[in-house]
Design goal:
With 584 residues, the protein is α/β, with parallel strands linked by helices. It is 25% helix and 15% strand. It contains 16 helices and 22 strands. The strands form six sheets. Strands 11-10-9-5-2-1-13-12 form an eight-stranded parallel β-sheet. Strands 14-17-18-22-20 form a five-stranded antiparallel β-sheet. Strands 6-8-7 form a three-stranded antiparallel β-sheet, with no helix packed on it. The longest helix has 17 residues. The radius of gyration is 24 Å and the shape is globular. Bound molecules: 1-deoxynojirimycin (NOJ). One of its GO terms (molecular function) is alpha-amylase activity. Belongs to the glycosyl hydrolase 13 family.
Length: 584
């Protein structure tokens, strides 16, 4: 490790280009990269439609991603996870796939994917892509064939078609609801022009659920995995990884008692479509398939399940490699809650030999530069908008977000960063109704705003059209004018900027090997008990102190390497995190 005293302090950030990175093409990954890179990696989520638009149509694309890879190297992340870019009618921003083995013309071609992958590998960045196995688009040829073939056909058996209840089958087969609002069943018109069977869609009507008990479905996805592994991807983020298998007989959902959880209990799931035991066999099969490939390829579960012990069952040694830690994301900004979720995470994932992961933002939740300063009762996926009461002021909210990032990036394990959080982007809360595109907004008739507010295209250059997002001035969701000041070029080189804070944190995290470290809580510092509301721990040689409470605390003696906000006179104000190399 380099001499820590040579690290610039929080106000002396290096802004030069990142040094040479190892090439991580699959041929060389074994030699040049440490084994199991994913155990400590910082993985940056690219939401392609909002990242960079090279074609000028207002929607980001793969050539756009390629053109901005150097910025990710400069940021200091290890890998990129790309949300879907497959052929899709885009009814759920690409999570409705009509061809799993092709690129939608909106985003480019297979050749532009290959160029992007090669360019990323040349720069030392791994690439994980999104796999959407719970449902296809209703425009997928299999679903179209199922509609045509009629009840009882093998084509229908690839999805979950059922007869309705009631005298004429006019009632849905059970009481399940779509995650986006409204019923989870839609009735089809049969060839005779009459209403007939119903099909299940846990999400939008345009996203019919596959029947994973059908071997043909399993075979389809083995082929999809191979298709992308052969092209050289480093792994898959598996969408709705808790939902593929449904309970036998599709029984009604029994609503939990007050205080209960829809995710399940330690012993058994209570929701007949989430966290069924049968999903694990699918991932064991996929793990075996991945292991046929050279290099270190990974499966990452998007499993909205609790408690954490249950999530950990997705990452047992013969299943997936990582699972998103949504318990951490959902934690309120309170010292006791954070300490508990950190301990539970390390215990649960550690208990099965997997790294814990950490995440604060993604394309489905309110950006943490806004969320952490909201009350605790905002439901995941419901979103916020112009009519939401008590929206926080931007600067104190950003201050808290930076403190939260400082805490997260100091934790051992692997961390996820969502595009734009390194710029301190807040949730956009004033999108006009006509611009909204999230199916949640439509399915709830505007009762829930949904997720568009965290998906607005990100600003790169303050003085360019669409702030450098697009070659033209168009942007599929309007960008707020305040984002000019948040553009990457405005922040680069400004020591007080959020971007430089992230760069410094990522550089130090890597230099002090925090991802591979161990957390040891400190109840006192320099003989003084830690005030309530303050979290302090040691990770490798660093001491990390996060002031999550209202009272001021003290910055420990030593070299201050990182501060999420100013720490005047050695005092640690509320909503501030510091990383200190202690004096010996
Ligand atoms: C989870 C994805 O992250 C979300 O964006 C999508 O709408 C649903 N799964 C359905 O695929």
């Amino acid at each position: 490790m380099a001499d820590p005293l040579e690290h610039p302090g929080p106000h002396e950030f290096a802004t030069d280009d990142a040094g040479a990175q190892p090439d991580v093409t699959q041929e060389t990954a074994g030699e040049s990269a440490p084994p199991e890179w994913w155990r400590t990696a910082v993985i940056y989520q690219v939401y392609p439609r909002s990242f960079a638009d090279a074609s000028g149509d207002g929607i980001g694309d793969l050539p756009g991603v390629t053109s901005r890879l150097d910025a990710l190297v400069e940021l200091g992340v290890d890998a990129v996870w790309l949300s879907p870019f497959y052929r899709s009618p885009q009814r759920d921003a690409g999570y409705d796939v009509s061809d799993y083995c092709d690129v939608d013309p909106l985003f480019g071609t297979l050749a532009s994917f290959d160029r992007m992958l090669e360019a990323a590998h040349q720069r030392g960045l791994r690439v994980i892509i999104d796999l959407v196995p719970n449902h296809s688009s209703s425009e997928h040829p299999w679903f179209q064939a199922a509609l045509e073939a009629g009840p009882g056909s093998p084509e229908r058996a690839r999805y979950l078609f059922r007869d309705g209840k009631g005298e004429h089958g006019e009632l849905p087969p059970n009481n399940w609801e779509s995650v986006f609002g409204g019923p989870a069943w839609t009735r089809v018109i049969e060839a005779d022009g009459e209403p007939g069977q119903w099909y299940l869609h846990l999400f939008d009507t345009s996203q019919p659920d596959f029947d994973w008990s059908n071997p043909e479905v399993r075979e389809l996805f083995r082929g999809v995995l191979r298709f992308w592994l052969d092209r050289g991807v480093d792994g898959f983020r598996v969408d709705v990884a808790h939902g593929l298998v449904k309970a036998e007989g599709l029984p009604d959902l029994e609503l939990p008692e007050a205080g209960g959880s829809l995710g399940g209990s330690r012993e058994a799931p209570i929701v007949p479509y989430w966290a069924q035991e049968g999903v694990h066999e699918v991932y064991r099969d996929w793990r075996r398939l991945l292991e046929e490939y050279e290099g270190d390829r990974v499966l990452v579960a998007e499993a909205w399940v609790d408690p954490l012990e249950r999530v950990a069952s997705w990452v047992r040694p013969d299943e997936m490699h990582q699972a998103f830690n949504f318990s951490y994301l959902m934690s309120p900004w309170r010292a006791d809650a954070l300490r508990e979720v950190i301990d539970d995470s390390l215990a649960a994932f550690g208990g099965v030999g997997a790294p814990s992961t950490w995440v604060l933002s993604n394309h489905d939740v309110i950006r943490h530069a806004t969320r952490l300063a909201l009350g605790e009762d905002h439901l995941q996926g419901h979103g916020i908008g112009p009519k939401t009461q008590g929206l926080p002021d931007r600067m104190p909210a950003l201050r808290r977000a930076r403190a939260a990032t400082g805490l997260m990036l100091a934790l051992p394990g692997s961390a996820y960063v969502y595009q734009g959080e390194e710029l301190g982007l807040p949730e956009v809360t004033d999108l006009p109704d006509h611009a909204r595109q999230d199916p949640t907004w439509f399915r709830t008739k505007g009762e829930r705003y949904g997720r568009d507010g965290c998906r607005v295209p990100i600003p790169w250059e303050a003085d360019a059209p669409a702030y450098g997002f697009s070659e033209s001035s168009s942007s599929w969701l309007p960008q707020p004018s305040e984002w000019r000041e948040l553009a990457r070029d405005r922040q680069l080189g400004d020591p007080s900027s959020t971007l430089e804070f992230y760069r410094a944190a990522l550089r130090l995290r890597s230099e002090f090997a925090l991802g591979a470290g161990e957390l040891e809580w400190l109840s006192e510092l320099e003989g003084e008990r830690m005030p309530k509301g303050v979290l302090a721990f040691r990770n490798n040689s660093l001491i990390v102190v996060a002031n999550v409470g209202a009272d001021e605390a003290r910055v420990p003696e030593g070299t201050l390497l990182l501060a999420s906000s100013e720490v005047p006179d050695g005092l640690l104000p509320a909503d501030t995190t510091v990383w200190v190399l202690p004096a010996r």
